[in-house]
Design a protein that fits this description.
By secondary structure, the chain is an alpha+beta fold. It has 2 domains: 225 residues, Orthogonal Bundle (Endonuclease III, domain 1), CATH 1.10.340.30; 141 residues, Nucleoside Triphosphate Pyrophosphohydrolase. Helices cover 45% and strands 11% of the residues. The protein is built from 17 helices and 8 strands. The structure holds a DNA duplex (11 and 11 nucleotides). This is Adenine DNA glycosylase. Its EC number is 3.2.2.31. Its cofactor is [4Fe-4S] cluster.
Length: 383
DNA sequence: AAGGCGGGGGC
DNA sequence: GCCCCAGCCTT
């Protein structure tokens, strides 16, 4: 019975003690919510869909109004779409409402208007996924299924100090295995709601020292004061796109300028053509616009005003020098090589300057894959 | 596996 | 003002 929990040092007695502590607390402290006054599966269904990504306090008035207007599955199956959306207006995620109607029609057609009572059948209904099926199944039909939402993930991760990344689908299995053994088979619906209430009111995302937790004696992260570490969740970093200009600056002797990336930049310590982000439209850029970032840079270095000019006009450049794309884990650079002619003597100019050189891609100055791509692109064109 | 959905709450 | 939010569907 406790094959998985045994690995965490839990025996049957500890499991029983945990359930008792949790459910006693729930019986004393459960919130009085409209859908908790009933076992009507339709009400539970509507409330669970409304509660997805939406807070309890927001849902309550919507729920009351909804079941008054559409008191049965049959009424929902036949409702006019505009009327349905008026009932949902302001809740957001409007496909939830449209899915409700489709599911109601599925129930009318395949289940004689009665909410199905098994997990596979519930999961076939539009808008009902693993969480919602388990919530309805356990609360309305006593199915012994953990309803794993964000609260259960957080609470479970803390109790067992689980390092599994909850943002990975594969981690779901680890939580489910544990919760199938932890859930009280006598009161599965109350167990789920107790865990959710606990997560929503006591073991919240930022309350790391819940002295009033009814299960703190069972909570390894409370005992070890590690609650702040759980749950482990990989930051969802969205990959942003950036337009960059990479200047290939050459003087009359043929020396080319490289600069070393500093600690506050990507590719720290490696040598590159000077690279700057830009937000101009390349196709219609003037020579001035293209050279301005570079002039600003030299100004900053204290090298003063230099004699710079483009070696190609912008439109020529765009055609002759295809863009180089470089993908980091969290951002993508689309780089345009900009060849620039410098009248001044580069070596004399940068003598004594830290982080600038004319001799990169030798054995002393490491260059990145990005820089290799930039050079290859340039040399490919000038072969 | 990633992106879209919509509004509210936390910081 | 920005960031985040674990539910489900679609691509």
């Amino acid at each position: 019975m406790t094959q998985v929990l045994a690995k965490y040092g839990w025996n049957d007695q500890k499991v029983k003690g945990f359930r008792a502590a949790l459910l006693d607390w729930y019986d004393q402290n459960k919130r009085d919510l409209p859908w908790r006054r009933t076992r009507n599966p339709y009400y539970i269904w509507i409330s669970e869909i409304m509660l997805q990504q939406t807070q309890v306090a927001t849902v309550i008035p919507y729920f009351e109004r909804f079941i008054k207007a559409l008191p049965t599955i049959e009424a929902l199956a036949n409702v006019d779409e505009q009327e349905l959306l008026l009932l949902w207006q302001g809740l957001g995620y409007y496909s939830r409402a449209r899915n409700l109607k489709v599911a109601a029609q599925q129930i009318m057609e395949h289940h004689q208007g009665q909410m199905p009572q098994t997990m596979p059948e519930l999961l076939k209904l539009k808008g009902i996924g693993p969480y919602t099926a388990a919530a309805i199944g356990s609360m309305a039909f006593d199915l012994v299924e953990p309803a794993i939402d964000g609260n259960l993930l957080r609470v479970t991760a803390r109790i067992f100090e689980l390092d599994a990344d909850i943002s990975k689908p594969s981690s779901r299995k680890i939580f489910a295995e544990i919760l199938y053994e932890l859930i009280d088979p006598e009161r599965p619906g109350d167990f789920n709601q107790a865990m959710m209430d606990l997560g929503a009111t006591v073991m919240t995302p930022t309350n790391y020292y819940p002295e009033d937790s009814p299960i703190k004696a069972y909570d390894q992260s409370f005992i070890n004061e590690t609650a702040a570490l759980y749950p482990v969740k990989k930051k969802k970093i969205k990959n942003t796109k950036h337009q960059m200009l990479a200047y290939r600056i050459q003087d009359l002797k043929g020396s080319v300028l490289y600069r070393q990336h500093t600690a506050d930049e990507l590719l720290t310590g490696l040598w590159h053509y000077p690279i700057f982000e830009y937000d101009i439209v390349l196709d219609s850029a003037t020579e001035d616009e293209l050279l301005t970032p570079l002039e600003d840079y030299f100004e900053q270095l204290g090298l003063g005003a230099l004699k710079l000019k483009l070696m190609m006009n912008p439109s020529q450049m765009i055609v002759a020098l295809p863009k180089v794309k470089h993908v980091f884990s969290h951002r993508t650079w689309n780089l345009q090589v900009v060849p620039v002619q410098l009248e001044d003597d580069l070596q004399a100019l940068i003598a004594g300057s830290q982080g600038l050189t004319t001799t990169a891609s030798d054995q002393e100055h490491p260059i990145s894959t990005l820089q290799q791509k930039l050079q290859a692109r340039w040399e490919g064109v000038n072969r």
